[in-house]
Amino acid sequence: MDNKQLWDSVLAEVELTVSRANFSTWFKNTRIIKHENGIVYVGLPNEFVKEWLYSKYDKFILKTLRNISEGVRGVEYVIVTPTMKEKSQDSSPSRTGQPYVQELPLSDLYINKEDNLNPRYTFDTLVIGSFNELAYAATQAVVKHPGQTYNPLFIHGGVGLGKTHIAQAVGNKLKEEKSGKKIYYITSEKFSMDYINSVQNNRVHDFKEKYRKYDVFIMDDIQFLSGKEKTQEELFHLFNILYENNKQIIFSSDRHPNHIHGLEDRLKSRFGAGMIVDITTPEYESRMAIIRRKIQSSNFSLNDDSVKFIAESLECSIRELEGIINSIICQARLKNRELQQTEIKLLIKNNIIPKKTASIKDVIKVVSEFYHIDESAIYEKTRRKEIVKPRQIAMYLLREDFTVSYPTIGEKFGGRDHTTVIHSCDKIKSSIKDDDVLVEELSQIRALL
Ligand code: ADP
Ligand code: MG
What we know:
By secondary structure, the chain is of the alpha/beta class.
């Protein structure tokens, strides 16, 4: 199989799982440039796409590549300029000749190797509204008196709501204002990998030394420490040392520390010892402000009615808003003219993922029928295996596909505690990773909903 065939097969898989808007925004103009020593080098049009694919689709791309071609060990993303593309032998004509993505003024990304900070994430580009004003206020206090007021600062909130942005903005601000300070940003997954590598290479001492020297330590997405006992232990010691020396620590997570399953109690209590703030989904006014800001920063213009229409139509995360705005800008650039309002409306309409409307009862009914169990058994306290699994699946679907809150799910399922619901959802989430039967069952149930 040549590179083009391999990548086309990957794209075919991707197309099945992402929305049309996402597919055309992120996967057009991509291709395999070379495949060497088990590493597949994927060529992309700009840093923005690179960052997006890396953060959102990296695992999926690797898994799909491996399914198709066994020898694949890893993926590297490389930015290819159009000229390089033209020179390249295996460039695919169908994916070239669309330089509009390059025109987006978003390719100014550069991640600093010393501190892992992305200069794009600043307070200047952060829109503040009631959804994040508490988190913002807390970060301002941290910037004024790092290590003294709120330590640690713990920011939690759903995917794409700006946790990484605001946490890194603190880092960037302190970097600018307090030049002597050693700042470091890392995701919990990378931290864990770094620790494991240090153990394998007999360099645990170096690992410890490295992290202890920071004045400002930002760890993102700590929900991924769940169940990683050794990394947690290492973090616990690191935390104590940094904390005792009044070094500022910032954590982010997709949920409150008390709700992170598989996290040691002593870490939970450390995390909760400073300030805990959350970021919620932006409300209408904030969505308007975000859309305006994104349009402006792309040197694009859009009339007020269209901005309002987008804000009204999309009750979603900031990342999703960005996705739609990018599609609109791409379309306009592709057509090389301003889009008419009807075109914008149509584009939004076509890209809106229809909100599912099945009720909680419907979901429970469909799941019970699917597993041939009595619907009423789901509500009962029984721990029979044949009931527990469907119950967990119903909870998982309500949370994932219908964004019902954990407490509401608990209440509907016979007054269960929300932590039980979180545990059930996590159980399914982790089972999906290696249980193909479950994955298939889920897709069949989803088709029935
Ligand atoms: P999270 O880490 O919570 O998943 P990110 O910080 O990655 O979310 O934010 C997703 C995208 O939305 C990023 O491109 C970020 O720059 C942008 N963004 C987030 N919050 C804001 C905000 N308040 N104003 C403007 N852009 C934002
Ligand atoms: Mg993030």
